[in-house]
């Protein structure tokens, strides 16, 4: 088995791969800049919610196949170096190479011949050749002869958990055959999924296109909601009568979705599909607020602040965009999310005039329990997902109102 170093190894992407690799017999060292998080993991606690990962962490620590450190010196002892630091976009929505270049600068002095470098993160396809040149310039090695380089993004399902890696397909992008063969050998030890040899650009496009396909489908589901509204038709009755259409999602942001589309549109003459999907999904919080303006209300509670159900990941969650917009409209805003310590007090919702479901956690399934926590018989419930059966059956397009709130004059 291999000696593996994971740069950014305590993040969601890095730790997931570290734990899988450690449980498959590899000797893994995770490098991270967050000392508090390192200590937390060393003591057997996950720093975030990851379904099924607790068992992997317990076993990795018990077998001593996982180590954690702040120092980069261990790179010199590794057979495989995996980088999980992403590419942000700048204020002009152009990909920034700085974080990745910084990681290369940090490890370049410790790299040695015959090592394999794998980029696991989401990168813009436009910068991959530059990464290769940067590595060769900093080390003096030639990729494919002295050192090996691969781009192998993680392909996960929409409701991902750590077990997905074991069976997911794995694209591997390399500039030449030798790097692919070495990378393939490693991934065969951790996944039974299909492994494909692609160019570096093709491998990243596979990841980006998969993610954007889901994002665009979500935008279409949200547009279906808006179309139904324009006809005064009930979208949830329409969806319940079909078996192929997706339900609306007012919180379809998520990590990377705000930037990944921009990695794809700069070279296509017809970018409207991606850009319009972005506009539709990002506009849903504003549309919800527009609906609230028909009522005389003061306090609004946001139910769920994470970017997906049963997670504590808040990256790019549109709940925060909604919260800010509600503040600007001079509403009294409360937030509740049992997965986030700062929003874990359900009493904050008491006496709310409106509850907006933004993240359909399983812990929210009992609507009667939510009603008791709110303690306001006139409360309006906004559930665009159709998460609650009561919303779909008694509500209209995600609005459930058992006792009518006062409507503003002229409405």
Q: How would you describe the overall organization of this protein?
A:
- Helix 4 packs parallel to helix 5, helix 7 packs parallel to helix 11 and helix 11 crosses helix 12.
- The protein has 411 residues and is an alpha/beta fold.
- It starts with a strand and ends in an 11-residue tail after the last strand.
- The longest helix is centred in the middle third of the chain and has 31 residues.
- The strands form three sheets. Strands 3-2-1-4-5-6 form a six-stranded parallel beta sheet. Strands 10-9-11-12-13 form a five-stranded mixed beta sheet. A two-stranded parallel sheet has the order 7-8.
The CATH homologous superfamily of the largest domain: NAD(P)-binding Rossmann-like Domain
Radius of gyration: 24 Å
Second rung of CATH, namely the architecture of the largest domain: 3-Layer(aba) Sandwich
Which runs of at least 5 residues are low in confidence (pLDDT < 50)?
Answer: none
Average the pLDDT over all residues and give the rounded result: 91
Query: For the terminal residues, how far apart are their CA atoms?
Result: 69 Å
- What name does CATH use for the topology of the largest domain? Rossmann fold
Counting DSSP E segments of at least 2 residues, the number of strands comes to 13
Helix and strand succession? EHEHHEEHEHEEHEHHHHHEHEEHEHE
CATH class of the largest domain: Alpha Beta
Number of helices: 14
Largest sheet: 6 strands, parallel
The portion of residues forming beta strands comes to 5-15%
Q: Estimate nothing, just give the exact number of structural domains.
A: 2
State the helical fraction: 25-40%
Provide the spatial order of strands within the biggest beta sheet. Answer: 3-2-1-4-5-6
Structural class by SSE content: alpha/beta
Shape from CA axes?
globular
